[in-house]
Amino acid sequence: MIALNESTSSKYVTVGSDQLEAKKWVKIYIQANGTGDYTANSTTIYVYIEGKSQLSAPVITSHTNQQTVQYSNLDDGLTFKWNAVTNATGYIYAVKLLDGEPNPSDNETGTMLAQANGTTARTVTITQSKLAQNKWVKLYVQAYGSGYNANSTTIYVYVQGKSQLAAPVVTSHTDRQTVQYGNLGSGLTFSWNAVANATGYIYAVKLLDGEPNPSDNETGTMLAHVNGTTARTVTITQGKLAQ
What is the rounded radius of gyration, in angstroms, for the C-alpha atoms of the chain? Predict the structure, then answer.
């Protein structure tokens, strides 16, 4: 019983909010009394106390969940955007670089890249220097408003690293092939294939002092060295070679 008055001339009753509960019915019974030739009569009504309305969850407009973005295209950073939620007065967001795969049921350890506990902004940009290649980025956004229950959205974006070019294939010779010095009057010419998506090549040709040993420094004389060229061939004259 919230309020009871067995006799009053007042025509209203106020119930404090601390006595009410959301999503509950309140019953109001009122009886009119009189003296003399009057018989009492009453009215009963019910009032429903509705809880806070639920805000809509923010909709991420810049990316879809599980989208892949290329690290090389993020010179201006990774920018997340979301819509304006009706009746929201602000937003809470957190952007985390995950250590592993997305797993909403887990703690999802990682590095916090950006966080705001209350802002009217609907965008956040993470600079490329804070990102890592071949890693997942998690975005959490919550909308809140006075008199409304908050609601949130979480998405994951994969930052893909640079793709690996195919290794050049030497088409003029096989590995460890033997050639005759006497047949090299026109020089020793190496050539290789055109690698898809390659814009140039770096090469080095060295006359070794000893046996091949890729794990060693392999001392010797540098015969030709180019740090950037579109050519796919190099010729070493016979005079630079040794028997």
Answer: 39
Least reliable range by pLDDT among 47-56, 101-110, 119-128, 230-239: 47-56
For residues 84-92, average pLDDT: 97
| 87-to-61, 143, 161 alpha-carbon distances in Å | 19, 9, 40
Confidence of residue 3 (pLDDT cuts 50, 70, 90): low
Asked if 197 and 165 touch (Cβ cutoff 8 Å), the reply is yes
Rounded CA gap, 224 and 147, in Å?
76
Please report, as a single letter, which amino acid is at residue 226: V
Burial level of 232, CB count in 10 A (0-12/13-18/19+)?
Answer: middle
pLDDT at 39: 82
Average pLDDT, the chain: 93
Tens-place pLDDT, residues 183-223: 999 999 999 999 999 999 999 999 999 999 998 889 999 99
> 62 vs 79, 121, 132, 158, CA distance in Å?
7, 14, 20, 14
**203 neighbors 228 (Cβ within 8 angstroms):** no
Q: What phi and psi, each to the nearest 5 degrees, are found at residue 100?
A: -135, -150
What kind and span of H or E run contains 176? none
Report which residue type is found at 89: T
CA distances for 109 relative to 103, 113, 179, angstroms: 10, 12, 58
8-state DSSP, 82: B
How many helices (H) and strands (E) in the chain? 0, 14
